[in-house]
Amino acid sequence: MNEEAVKKTMKKQTIFQRIAAVALSLAMTLGMSNLSGDLSAPVHAEEGKVVLSYEMEYKGQGWTGWAGDNHMLTRTGTYPTAFRAALREQPAGMTGTIQYQVNVSGSGWTGTKENGAVAGVEGGTAPLEGVRVWLNGDLASSFDVYTKAQVNGQWLDWVTNGQDAGKVGVGTHIDGVRIAVVKKGETPAEVAAASVRKVDPNRPMVALSFDDGPSKYDAQILSALEANGGRATFFMVGNLVARHQKTVQRMAADGMELGNHSWAHENLAKLSGPAVQESIQKTNRAIREATGQSATLVRPPYGSLGGKARPTLAAMGYSATLWDIDTLDWKTKNADNTVNVVLSQVKDGDIVLMHSIYAQSAAAAERIIPELTRRGYQLVTVSELAAARGVKMEPGHNYGSFHKKK
């Protein structure tokens, strides 16, 4: 074989080797697991830390997408049927994996799963009553896993290292979970720095809600809520979320409830069923990409539930959150009027409608929030209010207030 022929042969071999290497890499990537692409995003972890992600499948809604370590993962109007978790980062040289089990109603505890394998029944109908999560290998000697479950709208206490999270065998299911990996010696208080506080059902409460954001005015509202120990629900327009990502992340970190207000403030009653579903799902994705958690509630723009809106939301597992006090702040754009409407009409169990895209509304909120607190009202999220009143928000129903039954 002459020199030129040898060069051609070597060149072909090099090309084939490159193709084979790419194919092998692709095969390994596809074969490693059935995890979503979110887990492939780069992780900038502090050296020596474990980075955990987890997600659940909810009946009628599918998989939530991966939530980051110590994020609340919860839904209303439906229930989880499957769970999985994975480590995105762990200290170099340390052996170990994340392992977990779920308790499936009617079937009991599953076998042990790990590193992204599905626990429960994907696409199933039986709800999950509890979850156990722990580490093994070297990781178990240096880190603890804290898990808490939400049941009937209330977050239970933290449990650790494979203990049962949830109320198993009593006819209830979990609504959500929150999981954190911490170094040995850290306390639950440190883990739960941003945890959901307890609401006193015997004290009066009001759910302030803000539509049409996020916007540059949300920061004022959040600061007023923080200063007075209050929470609120923010119903966001999906196509604005990326533009105000840090604000939305602050909402989540402060324990505010993240609500879905459609992708582009469409009148859902005028859309087809698939279009309604796409609008809600796109907004959920935007919120999830910003915070690691999806919206828990939906408020249809204009409160419009005609056409395919209500049945589509119901099929997705959502109720519709409306209101009891409409401030009409979008129309008046007058802070004094908004303050007067709320303070002259407010009563225990109200849901108040405001909008966070107007400077006047933010200014009004800065006055309303401390005054309601001074009057003895707990400022709560819509879901906290519903849970305190013992109401399970059912798909296909709409809720405008949660007054005490006489």
Automatic annotation (TrEMBL):
Residues 204-380 form the NodB homology domain. One of its GO terms (cellular component) is membrane. Pfam families: Polysacc_deac_1. GO terms for molecular function: hydrolase activity, acting on carbon-nitrogen (but not peptide) bonds; metal ion binding. Keywords: Hydrolase, Metal-binding. One of its GO terms (biological process) is carbohydrate metabolic process. This is NodB homology domain-containing protein.
